[in-house]
Each structure stands twice: as structure tokens, then as C-alpha cells.
TrEMBL record:
DNA damage is among the record's keywords: no
Name assigned to this protein: ABC transporter ATP-binding protein
Residue ranges occupied by any ABC transporter domain in the UniProt entry: 9-246
Organism field: Nonomuraea spiralis
InterPro entries: AAA+_ATPase (IPR003593), ABC_transporter-like_ATP-bd (IPR003439), ABC_transporter-like_CS (IPR017871), ABC_transpr_LolD-like (IPR015854), MacB-like_ATP-bd (IPR017911), P-loop_NTPase (IPR027417)
Superkingdom assignment: Bacteria
Listed CDD domains: ABC_MJ0796_LolCDE_FtsE (cd03255)
Length: 247
């Protein structure tokens, strides 16, 4: 699994334009980004800075107008829609703010769904270890609607990790949670990075959440204006409020 490189994801020259002619607006401008294997990276920026669009391009959910995104030895931007869908099933895990669970499926069925969709066998030992580590083992026969928001997010994290993906994409994973539950979810994501070497890329507006990451990339005006490592929540909050970000 990419034993010859320490890079999990490399994006170069990413440009995304919305609209045409005089109504065209550059959402992303020549964005470059490298995320190492086993790194927890966060994307931050004010509303409209392009962070969610960038995350979608990195995950192959959106196709940039120019530039490349490579995960492992695969260039996502060279794949058609069907190819990107197949790649995501086998190589990416997703955690969303709204959990993205199917209400008519049990917790166990939700967790195993990506593997089943990809036609991949489920490793029973890994499944049991994952259920224990995420704390969802006793809920496997329940439906998502009977669980709290924090519990549902734990299920979503277990689902994202079941196939041992190259990269986990987390879009505002604590945005719908209270402070205590958010901290629990962030500790879980951090633990997956530290204990299992999982690569995580997270979009967040919350400096406390971003401080959990190894590296934080600040976006403004559709480009990355600064990258910091090991920052505290207070430092990130101050940086986010810097007037230069509003440019």
C-alpha cells in the first residue's frame, strides 16, 4: 500500500470556476496541497473561502476545471464519473455533519454498507476491533434514529474506517454536536490517526476541532494562504479572525 511514498494525497494547480463569462467566479485558484500518510490535516477559512469545494475536489465528488488530485498512485482527475465512484468506494471513507446513515438499516448494516457496495469482504477481526474502539458494539442491532447525535457520529466513523481506506474525508464532523460530544468524537478521530496510522482530512470552522489536527491549512479567496502545524485553538481562532482572511 504505497510503501514507496509517504504522501497519501497530492493536489496541484486546482482551479474551480462557477458560472460563465462575466458571471464566472473563481472558487478555487491554483490550490496545491500535500497530505502525508498517517497525518490529520484540517482545512479552515471564512464562509465562501472555498474549503468545502476543495474537499469535494480532493474526494473526487467534484471535478476541478484544471489541476490534478492524486491519491496513492491514482490521478482522480483523469477518471470519469464511474471511475471516481469506484475509486471512492475502495479507497475513501466519509464522515459528514449529518452522519449520512440510512434510517431503515441497523447500525451493523450501516457500518458494512460501503464494503458490501464495493464487493469487498469484511474482515471479522477488524470489524470487532473497530466496533470496540468506536464504542458502538452494543448498538449493532439498533436503528440510527434511536441513537443520540454523538452515537450516530461514532457509527459513521466506524463505517468510514471499515474498509481501511487510504484517506478519511470528514466534512464538519462536529458541527451538529455539543461541546462534550464534539470532544469525544475528535478524540476518536485523533486516536485512529495515532493508533492505526489513518490519514484524515477534515473541514471545520471550529478552532478547537482544528487544533486536534497535525496541520491546518487556511483558505481565503479560493487559495491556501497559510499552513500551520501544532497550533493551539486560541492561535487558530486569532488567525481565523485576521482581517487578511476577508480579502
Amino acid at each position: 500500500m504505497d510503501s514507496d511514498t509517504t504522501e497519501a494525497l497530492v493536489a496541484a494547480g486546482i482551479v474551480r470556476v462557477r458560472g460563465t463569462g462575466r458571471h464566472a467566479r473563481h472558487v478555487l485558484r491554483d490550490v496545491g496541497l500535500t497530505v502525508r500518510r498517517g497525518e490529520f490535516a484540517a482545512l479552515m477559512g471564512p464562509s465562501g473561502s472555498g474549503k468545502s469545494t476543495l474537499l469535494n475536489c480532493l474526494a473526487g465528488l467534484d471535478r476541478p476545471d484544471s489541476g490534478t488530485v492524486r491519491i496513492g498512485g491514482t490521478c482522480l482527475t483523469n477518471l470519469d464519473e464511474a471511475g471516481r465512484t469506484a475509486f471512492r468506494r475502495e479507497n475513501l471513507g466519509f464522515v459528514f455533519q449529518d452522519y449520512g446513515l440510512f434510517p431503515n438499516l441497523t447500525v451493523a448494516e450501516n457500518i458494512e454498507l460501503p464494503a458490501r457496495a464495493a464487493g469487498s469482504p469484511v474482515d471479522p477481526a477488524w470489524r470487532q476491533a473497530l466496533l470496540a474502539r468506536t464504542g458502538v458494539r452494543e448498538w449493532t442491532d439498533r436503528r440510527p434514529g434511536t441513537l443520540s447525535g454523538g452515537q450516530q457520529q461514532r457509527v459513521a466513523i466506524a463505517r468510514a474506517l471499515l474498509t481501511r481506506p487510504r484517506v478519511v474525508i470528514a466534512d464538519e464532523p462536529t458541527g451538529a454536536l455539543d461541546t462534550v460530544t464534539s470532544a469525544q468524537v475528535l478524540r476518536l478521530l485523533r486516536g485512529m490517526v495515532d493508533e492505526f496510522g489513518q490519514t484524515v482530512i477534515m473541514v471545520t470552522h471550529d478552532p478547537v476541532a482544528a487544533a486536534t489536527a497535525d496541520t491546518v491549512h487556511f483558505l481565503a479567496g479560493g487559495t491556501i494562504v497559510e499552513t500551520v502545524a501544532g497550533a493551539t485553538a486560541r492561535t487558530l481562532a486569532l488567525r481565523l479572525s485576521d482581517p487578511v482572511d476577508a480579502a
